[in-house]
Amino acid sequence: MRLKTFGDGVTPNEKCWVGIDQSYSGFAITVLSEDGSYETTVAKFDSSGGERLEEIQEHLLETMHRTVGCCKVQDVAMEGYAYGSIMANKLGELGGVVKLTLHSLNDIGNGKDPLIVPPTSLKKYVTGRGTGVQKNQMLLQVFKKWGVEFPDDNAADSYGLAHIVSGKGSMAYEKEIYDKLNTAESRER
């Protein structure tokens, strides 16, 4: 596993939110503190199949245990599936591993299932538009909106997911997106 880390880390003992962009090209996790401090990691794996899923699960467990030991996780969001994707089956397996891993950690987000954020909702929250948004535009808008620069689109997506699940959006469209997503259906209960 190759791991890149961005940010200065989260403030200990504060409330925090977690955003997960479960991607095969770069599995990204952002932990965002109430004060705006953050840590984003992007893990890349050389393995494939079940071995890769196992390595991702171990990485997620390690990250979440470290996070729970540092801050008070309020909630977790993960990016929803791109159903038209060629890799839809693999992405479904990966999403299942993420959900199962988070479910095994009862003290995460007060026992709630993760918030599932469709890719179009994430794009709209970050850029103001839900369709026609390229990866480089996401990177630029994360920088413009929050002053955080990432060289990796998976990192930017996980950072945006952490902001969504925090529910702290100040713009009307941000609040609307959070309210629409924060339902039982988006938690898949």
Account of the 3D structure:
- By secondary structure, this protein is an alpha/beta fold.
- The protein has a single domain (2-187), classed as Nucleotidyltransferase, domain 5.
- It contains seven helices and six strands, in the order E-E-E-E-H-E-H-E-H-H-H-H-H.
- The protein has a six-stranded mixed sheet with strand order 1-4-3-2-5-6.
- Strand 3 (27-33) and strand 4 form a beta hairpin.
- Helix 1 packs parallel to helix 2.
- The longest helix is centred in the N-terminal third of the chain and has 22 residues, at 49-70.
- The mean pLDDT is 90.
Low-confidence stretches: none
**Proportion in helices:** 40-55%
Q: Kindly state the mean pLDDT as a whole number?
A: 90
As for the CATH topology, it is: Nucleotidyltransferase, domain 5
Strand order of the largest sheet: 1-4-3-2-5-6
DSSP strand count = 6
Tell me the radius of gyration.
15 Å
CATH homolog superfamily: Ribonuclease H-like superfamily/Ribonuclease H
Distance between the termini: 32 Å
Integer tally of domains: 1
Number of helices: 7
Profile the largest sheet: 6 strands, mixed
Summary?
The protein has 189 residues and is α/β, with parallel strands linked by helices. The chain is 46% helix and 20% strand.
Question: Any chance you could write out the topology, listing elements then pairs?
Answer:
Layout: E1 2-6, E2 15-21, E3 27-33, E4 38-44, H1 49-70, E5 72-79, H2 88-103, E6 115-117, H3 119-127, H4 135-146, H5 153-166, H6 172-181, H7 184-187
Parallel strand pairs: 2-5, 5-6
Antiparallel strand pairs: 1-4, 2-3, 3-4
Helix pairs in contact: 1-2, 4-5
